[in-house]
Amino acid sequence: MPLRIGPLEIDPPVVLAPMAGVTNAPFRRLCREFGAGLYVSEMIGARGLVERNEKTLALARFDDDEVPRSIQLYGTDPSSLGAAVQMLVEELRVDHIDMNFGCPMGKVTRHGGGAALPWKKDLFRSIVSTAVGAAGEVPVTVKFRKGIDDDHLTYLETGLIAEEEGAAAVALHARTARQLYSGEADWDSIARLREAVTTIPVLGNGDIWTAWDAIAMMEKTGCDGVVVGRGCLGRPWLFRDLADVFAGERPRRAPSLGEIGAIMIRHARLLVSHFGEKVGMNLFRKHPSWYLKGFPAGSALRDAFARVSSVEELAALIGQLDPGIPFPEAAHTMVRGHSQGPRPVRLPDGFLEDRSGTRLDREAEQVVSGG
Fold it and tell me: Is 103 noted as a catalytic residue in this protein?
């Protein structure tokens, strides 16, 4: 059944999670070529957008034919956030805005932002209310974690506040900020959120490594859709698999090493076309280790992939691989991307002593791109 987020119909009910340094326009295009869904940009900072920071504006770029235009926005000050939303709607013509309250990184939480912010209930409510009001007909969704740690869980009230203030959907990464990306995602918490939030869609995020994991999550939790993050790193065809299983079919055969090599070249060319050769290839260098996860490749060759500087050099390196090697079965569930944690959450002094308050320090607004 399609997922409805405001006026948008998402079929299959799959959303690409925003990932810093990854979900730029070229990667979003690559994923769209494999399957339908909603593909969200990297996170951008509200203040940087309003101040027309060059890096922020670059992160907010879309391909001319990208539809729907979906962007994730970070902010801690309602006034600057409202101005940023208005700019996104009127100037950048976005079709969807996702609010980030899930980033667990210390550079964000140490000022009270990201996954820490819902602890301040009044501020959280004000931010969501302001964003929804400024967005008009453009749907605003809210993504968050279970809470700061197991002793400071906030996800149920966070979901209810978002629902009350007019969010079009909520998404739960079923880990605490303290967990970072370690351990197993707590799918039971997604089910509890689904029971509490009844008038808007609830999406689940965490440990979707295969298309069958998405089906299992929805069956176990009753959630309305899934958010896919690390599972698609080095595997953009996961969106094809997801389209297959939601259509009641078995996923197609995973690509061989030769076919993956062609995908890598396509990915690099898209990055170079969008950013230029130097920046594009620098951005690509993190991807080969994910594409080659589980395949036999010596350390020298892997190191060469991590230093590749042109599409031609990349093609030559791929030529050293055996194209006939099938995709390793074990690689379907190998962890890609972040795996650190657990780790104590960095917070402002006295942050947990008071849940009221409608403002954080100015430093919390300085984030241009988070995780």
Answer: yes
The domains found in the chain, sorted by start residue, are 3-251+342-366 (3.20.20.70), 257-326 (1.10.1200)
Q: Above 80 in pLDDT, residue 127?
A: yes
Whether the CB-CB separation of 203 and 225 falls below 8 Å is answered with yes
| Rounded (10°) CA dihedral 171, 34, 11, 159 | 0
The tens digit of pLDDT for each residue in 236-294 reads 999 999 999 999 999 999 999 999 999 999 999 999 999 999 999 999 999 999 999 99
- Choose the catalytic residue: 31, 103, 223, 232: 103
- 358 band by pLDDT with thresholds 50, 70 and 90: confident
